Amino acid sequence: MLCSLLLSSCAPVITTVTQPSRPQNTRVFTAAVPTTPSIAGATLYKGLYPGEHGQASYLIEVPDNWNGKLVMYAHGYAGMGAALTVSPPALREYLVAQGYAWAASSYSSNYYDVRSGIEDTNALAEQFGPLTGGKYPAPSKTYIMGVSMGGNVAAAAVEAETLATARHKVKYAASMPLCGVLDPPYEFQWLGDYTLNAQQLSGYGAQSYPASDFQTLLPDIKAGLFSDTSGALWTPNTVQGARLRDISLNLTGGPRPVFDLGFRVGGLQDAVLSTGGSDGTLNGILVKNIYGNKDVVYRWTSGPTPTPAEIAYNKNVVRTAADPQANPQRADGLRWLPAIHGQFNVPVLTMHTLGDFYVPFAHEQHYLKMAQQNGNAGLLVQRAIRAAGHCEFTAPEFVEAFNDWMKWEQTGQKPAGDDVLTPSVVADAKYGCKFTRTARPGVEACEAPSAP
Q1: Which residues on neighbouring strands pair with residue 16, listed in sequence order?
Q2: What is the dihedral of CA 145, 150, 151, 155, to 10 degrees?
Q3: I want to staple 71 with a disulfide (CB 3.0 to 4.6 A). Which of 7, 101, 102, 107 is the partner?
Q4: Domain segments of the chain: what residues?
Q5: 3-state secondary structure (DSSP) of residue 7
Q6: Peptide bond preceding 210: is omega within 30 degrees of 0, i.e. cis?
Q7: Given this model, what pLDDT does residue 19 score?
Q8: Rounded to whole angstroms, how far apart are CA atoms 387 and 258?
Q9: Which of 12, 15, 13, 17 minimizes the C-alpha distance to 325?
Q10: Treating both helix axes as pointing N-terminal to C-terminal, what angle do 184-201 and 240-251 enclose, rounded to 10 degrees?
């Protein structure tokens, strides 16, 4: 608790390790002035500014009735192309209507570069005055929210280690990571585990790591696990596909509503399978392998001990060890993959869909455990949404979460959330009903329809 109250004094001691230059340092990205149109009731500023890797694009919008508060928005993963893009948050019109200014950066690089996401977002917050022509006073409070990889940015931005080591330091009043990567090493552990198991169960098990033939074999891997991949929802076959589904269930947070539907979403399967054969460097964000599965026991059953079949299966799955120096602290700022330890001292509200197969619900469980270990669980509210897609939130869910988050920070009235750790609660057929405001196709409705 003392560490929570005096967070800056509890920041970890910085020790660094010299590593070779990483591929990300040599990549060239191109930012362009955004073409986003303005909306009534606000002034939109747009252009370029210096970022971590070079120029980044920005958008800043200030309502005519600005309340003095600024919301920084962090976008999700934008791929591995050279072109940088920036877009408004989904809540843009609502933010303006409520009097909040907002700002968003393209970041100065693509790939899974969270360091760039944090530094460039923070630098933009620092430049609010100059980039708006000095027309406004400094914001009275600055907040941060983000989706997916941007959720990683938003969560890491309020960590003690970030406040201690970032080159651009911004003390946000609160953070709202949505569908976020809240335990970055786990995300890449999950992607590596799933693709290795998919290859093994399909009959084309990797003989070494990384599995350099994965993408070549991918059509055959799919055919060995799914009886139909032609539509939006894939159909797992009766044995190997079902085992892969159940292994995935155990790896991503345990029994819960909507998981089965999320497993079948072809777009999410394609996103996860597209990472197969990776070498654990996050495509050159790191220079050493961050993935390891030496001690992982893969289970498709739920009994107290593995079955003989599971024991035999685990003996055949290729094993590798993560390099302990894959992601060390650095003397020049944040780690290449900024750390999340659950060390924050501001209100944090998260929201996650239960069926998300790309950034699984287990992130919420890991994040809460880290917060509990640091005495910060009282500053964390988490909400489960009954949907299968990644970041599949509706406008009422976004607005309610935002309003509750702002009310919490501004009045101290903590909002309600969901229990994400108790297995019996999470497995209940009605779990997630508390904050789901829109029924999704294929998902059991929370309330029976009214009689005609």
Answers
A1: 329
A2: -80
A3: 102
A4: 2-184+332-427, 199-316
A5: helix
A6: yes
A7: 62
A8: 7
A9: 17
A10: 170
The span from the CA of 212 to the CA of 189, in Å, is: 17
Phi, psi of 264 (to 5 degrees): -90, -10
Distance of CA 42 to the CA centre of its chain: 30
Tokens 């800056």 — which residue? 8
Return the H-helix or E-strand segment holding 102: strand 101-105
Fold of 2-184+332-427: Rossmann fold (3.40.50)
- The structure tokens 């009735």 sit at 65
CA distance 288 to 190: 18
Cβ-contact 153, 339 below 8 angstroms:
no
How distant, in Å, are the alpha carbons of 72, 84, 195 from that of 80? 23, 10, 20
List of E strands, 298-379: 348-353
Distance from C-alpha of 367 to C-alpha of 231, rounded to nearest angstrom? 34
Q: CB neighbours of 346 closer than 8 A, spacing ≥ 6?
A: 158, 172, 173, 174, 175, 379, 409
Distance from C-alpha of 241 to C-alpha of 222, rounded to nearest angstrom: 9
Q: Where are the beta strands (DSSP E) in 329-423?
A: 348-353, 380-385
Task: Answer positive or negative: Cα dihedral of 112, 106, 158, 376.
Answer: negative
Task: HSE, CB side, 13 Å, CA atoms: give it for residue 425.
Answer: 11
Strand partners, 176: 145
Tokens of residue 340, six digits: 């999340």
3-state secondary structure of 44: strand
10-residue mean pLDDT profile of the chain (452 residues): values are 34 52 96 97 98 97 98 98 97 98 98 98 98 98 98 98 98 98 98 98 97 97 97 95 98 98 98 98 98 98 96 98 97 97 98 98 98 98 98 98 98 98 98 97 79 38
